[in-house]
Amino acid sequence: MASSDSMDMDPDVARRLFEEGATLVLMGVPQGTELGIDCKSWMVGPRFKGVKMIPPGLHFLHYCSVNSPGCGGEIGPKTGLFLDLKPRQILLASWDPKEEDLDFKASKDEEEVNRIRANLRDLDPFLGPYPYEVMRKWVSLTDRLSEEVAVNLQPLSGRVCAFSDVIPEIQMRHTKDRAEQPRNDTACQSMKEGLDRLPRMKQREGTELRFSVIPEKTYPPGATPAEITRCSMDLSYALETVLENNHKLEPLNLLGELQFAFVCFIIGNVYEGFEHWKLLLSLLCRSEETMRKRKDLYLGLIAVLYHQLGEIPPDFFVDIVSQDNFLTSTLQDFFQFASGPGVDGTLRKRAEKFKAHLTKKFRWDFDADLDDCAPVVVDLPEGVAVD
Q: Does domain 225-362 have CATH number 3.40.630.10?
C-alpha cells in the first residue's frame, strides 16, 4: 500500500482530514497480506505501517493473512472488525504471527500511544492515506448502522470471519467418549452413513454473528387455520416480533442490521451475512400491515436497497442473487403491497420510482407472472421451417 494510490481530493478536505482524521498504526503486518478498510483493499508492501487521515466514524477493517513465500504465499480467509474512530484518535495494533491476527492490546497502553503521537511525523511516510474516493460509497452502505448496532451484532470475539471457527460438539477427551462414536473401520454403505460417522461440529463460542432471530413460525401461538393462512401471506406478525425482541426502542435499527449483514457478505465474504440479508429482506417486503403503519421504516428500506443493489456487480445477480428468482419475486411482492390501499402516498410514489429505476437498470419485469412457467410462443416469419 503506497501513498501514490492517494486521493484526488479538495486541498481543504485533505488538510482537515490530516488534522482531524484518525490514524491506524499497524505494526508488523507481513508483506503480501491483503488489507483494506471499508470498500477498498491493498497488498501490504515492505514499508507499510498503517493508515492515516481516516474520517471519524464507523469503519470496517479487514485483512487476509498470507503464508510465507516458502509455503506458496497463499492468502487465507478474510477477517474483519468494525471500528468506531474518533477525531485525531490513534489506534495501535501489532501483528500476532501465531494467531495470524491483529492484536490491539497496545492501544490500551496510554504511554505507548502518546509516544506514537509524538513521533507521528516520522511515521507519516509509512502510512497510507484513507481511500477517500470510496468514502461516499461506504457512507451510503452504512448510514443506518450505528456503532451500538454493529457492536451488538458482531461476534463477542470482536472478529467477523469469512469461515466459521468450529469445534466438535463432543470433545472426546476420554476413552468412553470415543468408544461411543460410530466405528470407521468398515466401508460406508451410503453417503448418509459416511456423514453420520463424521464428528458433529458446532461454532466456537464467541465467534458467531449475533443476528436477530427470525421466528420459525410466522403466526402467533394458538392461531386458527385462517390466522395461520393470513400470517403466512402477510408476515407482519413475524416482523413485529423481530422488532419487539431486538429493536424495540429504535425500529429503524433493523435497517442498520440489514446493512451490517450486507457489508459482512459483500466486503467480509461471510455467506451467513447474505443468508440473513435475504431473510430480513423477505420479512420486510412481505409485511403488508406493517408497511401501512411504519412509513419511515419503508422509506428507509428503499434508500438502503437503492445503494446496496447499486454496489452489487451485474454478474453477481446471475450467480447468487437471482437464484430461484429470490430478489425479483420478493420485490414484486413489495411493490404490490406498496401500491395497495392504506399505504402512505409518499411511500407509494417512492416505491413506484424505485420500481422504474430497477426495471430500467436491471431489465427486471415486476409485472410478469414469475410462477408462469409456460413456454413463450414466438411468431416465426413466413417460410421459416421448424424441425
A: no
